[in-house]
């Protein structure tokens, strides 16, 4: 998802007449700057509970925002339960809601950033009216006119050309999503070098006449905290002696994989820059530059603690963190927030080094996110993939957005 996409607000609601009973949902997508309605969704879903209908409303709103090409989303709902569960503060105890929450979480990953806000029902009148109309349809009642409570528009003087352009882009994206070409066939897929790999059409057809940008992903060598199985995020912990040996071995391996490299790009933390310098030396001296977006996740209050200590002291917080990428460790950073900057870093690499090979030296979390996106995997991938210190992964990206993952966590050199 490009960071240049529009910022939108989703208002969503759902309900049933009987709980469970005839149910429906409503969702509205607005331009965040002006309040202009960009999309509406409303559907009768048969017999269901209030909570199921509320989740369905949220999912419909996220789907509509994705169709509009939104980058940043604020989801507003008058359902305290859905908001708290999506933020990871409340457990999802009802088994019927877990698949819906998982579907919503998968959609969240398609945006640069998503926040959830509880609002009173009287501030959610538009979505509530759409949901009530859908419930009427589910109950077989005559549909009533849907009252719409519009938010006031920002005065025209504040309606900048950039905002107007964003709205025009959103409308164009919506038209492409819902209409095909003049021949009546399906709409052609459009992609960019920074497109989310999950949205790129699948193809086994070999690409000819164009070169991929190859990213050789290298995790830094081991530190003392690595050996002690402690959370190591923003703390600038140096390589251990074993880690330097691992980095030298990785450097030799990278030089064998790619004799010609355009650049070595590193997280600014010393355990990465030291690894990167050894790789650059083995390659004969391509420039090493740092990118702050490649820094490790901020683990907040968990920094420097063992995994066992965190599990014992923060059991609820850890369960919530493992269950949702929207949840951050206390005082830290969520994987959704990390994803936004990692995708930005990836897009900069693809734009800056088209058709070339770049070595990226970073940490566990950023590299897992790059691989998760490349493989179009779910969020569970982040907790199931293991990346060794000085392990190497290789992925190619073509100008049309196509991706091939060549290697994951190669450790033959260690």
From TrEMBL:
Annotated RNase H type-1 domain residues: 4-144
Compositionally biased intervals (Low complexity): 146-161, 169-202
Record Pfam families: His_Phos_1, RVT_3
InterPro entries: His_Pase_superF_clade-1, His_PPase_superfam, PGM_Phosphatase, RNaseH-like_sf, RNaseH/PGlycerate_mutase, RNaseH_domain, RNaseH_sf
Region feature Disordered, mapped onto this chain: 1-22, 136-206
Highest taxon, organism lineage: Bacteria
Matches recorded under NCBIfam families: PRK07238.1
Protein name: Bifunctional RNase H/acid phosphatase
Protein's organism: Micromonospora echinofusca
């Amino acid at each position: 998802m490009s960071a240049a996409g529009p910022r939108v607000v989703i208002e969503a609601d759902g309900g049933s007449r009987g709980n469970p009973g005839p149910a429906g949902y409503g969702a509205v997508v607005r331009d965040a700057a002006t309040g202009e309605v960009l999309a509406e969704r409303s559907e009768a879903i048969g017999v269901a509970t209030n909570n199921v209908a509320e989740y369905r409303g949220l999912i419909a709103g996220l789907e509509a925002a994705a169709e509009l090409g939104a980058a940043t989303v604020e989801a507003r709902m008058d359902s305290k339960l859905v908001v708290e569960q999506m933020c990871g503060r409340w457990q999802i105890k009802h088994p019927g809601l877990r698949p819906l929450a998982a579907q919503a979480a998968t959609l969240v990953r398609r945006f640069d950033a998503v926040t959830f806000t509880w609002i009173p029902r009287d501030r959610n009148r538009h979505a509530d009216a759409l949901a009530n109309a859908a419930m009427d349809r589910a109950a077989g009642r005559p549909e009533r006119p849907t009252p719409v409570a519009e938010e006031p528009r920002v005065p025209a003087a504040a309606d900048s050309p950039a905002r107007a352009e964003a709205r025009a882009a959103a409308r164009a994206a919506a038209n492409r999503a819902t209409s095909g070409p003049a021949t009546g066939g399906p709409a052609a897929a459009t992609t960019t070098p920074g497109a989310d790999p999950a949205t790129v059409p699948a193809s086994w057809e070999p690409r000819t006449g164009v070169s991929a940008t190859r990213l050789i992903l290298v995790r830094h060598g081991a530190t003392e905290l690595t050996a002690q199985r402690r959370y190591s995020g923003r703390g600038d912990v140096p390589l251990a002696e074993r880690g330097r040996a691992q980095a030298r071995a990785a450097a030799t391996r990278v030089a064998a994989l790619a004799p010609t490299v355009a650049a070595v790009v590193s997280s600014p933390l010393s355990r990465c820059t030291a690894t990167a310098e050894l790789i650059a030396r083995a390659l004969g001296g391509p420039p090493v530059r740092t990118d702050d977006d490649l820094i490790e996740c901020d683990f907040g209050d968990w920094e420097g603690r063992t995994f066992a200590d965190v599990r014992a002291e923060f059991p609820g917080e850890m369960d919530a963190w493992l269950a949702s990428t929207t949840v951050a460790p206390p005082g830290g950073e969520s994987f959704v927030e990390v994803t936004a900057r990692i995708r930005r870093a990836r897009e900069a690499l693809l734009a800056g080094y088209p058709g070339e090979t770049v070595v990226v030296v970073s940490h566990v979390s950023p590299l897992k996110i790059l691989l998760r996106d490349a493989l179009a995997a779910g969020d569970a991938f982040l907790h199931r993939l293991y990346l060794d210190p000085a392990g190497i992964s290789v992925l190619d990206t073509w100008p049309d957005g196509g991706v091939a993952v060549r290697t994951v966590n190669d450790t033959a050199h260690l």
